[in-house]
Structures are given as structure tokens and as C-alpha cells.
Amino acid sequence: MRPVIKGFPDYGVSVVVKFGGSLMKNLQSCKDALAELEDLHRSGHRILIVPGGGLPDKAIESVNATHPFEHFTAHHACALAQDQTGYMLADAALSFGLVATSSLGECRQILNEDRIPVLLPSRILFALDPVEWSWDVTSDAVAAWVAWLCGAQRLAIWTDVDGVFRDGATHDTDALIREITSKKLACLGHTSIDMCAAQFMAARNLAGAVLNGAFPDRMRAWLEGNNFVGTRIIAS
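^ that's the sequence the OP posted. Answer follows.
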């Protein structure tokens, strides 16, 4: 985290987790992943979750495929889809120690109450308008921006593949990129993390990892500096 400046209290977030909406395809796996985050939180990791668009986002994309939306409509609908996914992740049907909020100030309070905040990003995105209204900017980029905004130095992108692969060969274990700088990652274009997120991480000196949320124990290995299956992103 950034040094504390007098008069500017730290948000107290050590790692932002972008929880990919694709992980909701298997709800038991989704619950297991959230339980691991709760366990990590109890171990002292101060986690903030940024939800992906998930099932609501897929519905928007489906309509857009045949009846393309205006950029305004797509941007705002997708941001609200992230909110909807966040509400579901924080519900007692899927988790126990998560709390949905649209305020970074409340994120700080929730962490101080020893719970995990799930940031519903639409209100902040609509008020500050920090990202381009484009399909190229996904929830990955929003999560990277949130990590920078709240002073977290690490970003975990949880998705449904094992990491970043050369030439997109996600089923070829030999093609898995185990470690890469954010600058080199940005040069690869859109992979299992979107190009805008990678470029932002390089520009803001953010470290991170791309991890398969179906194997949530890999998150602990990464956080503790141990070997793991996934892609470690080195700040550059």
C-alpha cells in the first residue's frame, strides 16, 4: 500500500480481487472460491472484491450481437451488470463474510469490521467517468483502476482458465506463461486479461496474477510468494 499521508487515511486494501463472472457457471465452485477468500481474510489479507459482469453481462452481449447498442447503453448496462453480480456474491446463498457496497469509504469501514467488501462499481464509474465507453474496456480494467485508486499494490484476476497463454492456447499447459512483466503483458494484446487492464497495470506499477478461480488455493500460494499454477505479473 502507499505511504500514509497525514489527513488522508488509507483504505487499508492489500489486494483487489477481480472475481470473474465466468466463475458463477458452477455455483458450488463459486462458493468454494468465496470461502477461500474469507479464509485468506481471516489470515490477515485485506481483500476488496470487484465483481465481473457475469450472467447479466452475458445477456447484454447476447442482445448486442444481433442488435448493437449505442456505446452509452452498453457501458452503463455493463457497469450495472457488475453491480448485480456483486449483490449475488455477497448474498448469504453464496457467502458469509462479504458485504456489498458502492462506496470506498464503506469499504474501509467493512474491512475494519473484519469483513470483505464487494465494491459495486457503477456509481463511482458514472460519477467519475474514468474509462472509455468501449467493449475493449472490461471489468478487468475497472478492477485495475480500483486497485490503483484505493492504493492496493496487488491485483488478482480470477477467471476460468489457468492464466495467460501464448497465442491463446488455454488448453496447452506448455503454453502457460508463468511469469511476465506488465509491460510485456500489455504488448500481447487481449488475452485472459484485457489489454486495457495490462496497460494500466504497466503505467501504474501494479503487480498481480491471473488465476483460475476453480482452484482458489492458488491465491494463497501467490500471496505468500510460493510456486503456483497461473501467471505472475511483475510490476514494471
